[in-house]
Amino acid sequence: MAIVEARTLSKVYGSGEVAVTALRGINLSVEPGAFVAVMGPSGCGKSTLLQLLGGLDRPTSGDVVIEGQALASLSDDALTTLRRRRIGFIFQTYNLLPILSALENAALPLVLDGVRPAEAHARAAAWLERVGLGDRLHHRPDQLSGGQQQRVAIARALVTDPALVLADEPTGNLDSRAADAIVQLLRQVADSWGRSVLMVTHDPRIAAYADRIIFLKDGTIVEETRLAAPTTSTLAGPDKLLEAR
Predict the structure, then answer these.
(1) How many CB atoms lie within 10 A of CB 62?
(2) To pair with 223 at 20 to 30 A between CA atoms, which of 40, 75, 121, 194?
(3) How does DSSP assign 52-86, residue by residue?
């Protein structure tokens, strides 16, 4: 069963003469453990697609199905719970709270879900260790590099054990060395940790790490390419990844 499916998904903003169609009848599925990249020119609907797949916005028509559950059938409260527990979000701007430590930022989704702070911090510390930040648990965002902040964001996205990770330009604010380390980590998220990853990117070099590249233009899928993507066994080893932080 696909982790997420888009079924004839369309999104129109506004109405009448000022209506703007962002997506037109998109059909898409992402299997368990897949790493999919979405590319296309500015304004083609990439971010809109990500928002609809993540339940951050409602489509004009069509539906999104996550693990067999149609989002259109969910109340706002049920949709919020599903987003919090089954979907991890990674953004270009990290979206870390500046007054919280790396550990507190990574634990926040669990705390908001009612998990006891001690358990939430233990699970967050384990994920920060996995992404190479075991020695940065108590550093605030302003004490971390951009690559390290994005690693905190990845740990935060994974701490609830989601089935799906949605990444919106996750390397957009990073230099090429840090960007490579982050996309290799996302590759590991799919290969080693079994999460489905859907990533929006404008960078063909970053997209080449994925299993599939979906090209959007004017709100429609115009091409799909399947790649012999690098696996974690062929990427830089842990020491090299940590050097690129």
Answers:
(1) 18
(2) 194
(3) HHTTSS--SEEEEEETTEEGGGS-HHHHHHHHHHH
Residues 6 or more apart whose Cβ sits within 8 Å of residue 150: 90, 94, 170, 171, 173, 174, 178, 182
What are the residues facing 224 on neighbouring strands?
214
Whether residue 163 is predicted with pLDDT greater than 80 in this model: the reply is yes
Distance (Å, rounded) from C-alpha 151 to C-alpha 217?
31
Domain boundaries, the chain: 4-95+164-243
**CA proximity to 71, closest of 6, 119, 20, 159:** 6
Output Rg (C-alpha) for the chain, integer angstroms: 18
Q: pTM here?
A: 0.90
Kindly state the DSSP code that residue 89 receives in the 8-state scheme.
E
Structure-token match 């709100």, residue found: 219
Residue 95 phi, psi (nearest 5): 55, 40
- Residue 180 pLDDT more than 70? yes
Mean residue pLDDT across the chain: 91
Arithmetic mean of pLDDT, 214-218? 95
Six-digit token string for 183? 């996309």
Domain 4-95+164-243 has CATH 3.40.50.300: yes
User: Closest Cα to residue 88, out of 220, 199, 183?
Assistant: 199
d(CA 17, CA 26): 23
Cα–Cα distance, 85 to 189 (Å, whole number) = 17
**Which of these, 208, 181, 170, 162, lies nearest to 32 by C-alpha position?**
162
pLDDT in the model for residue 238: 36
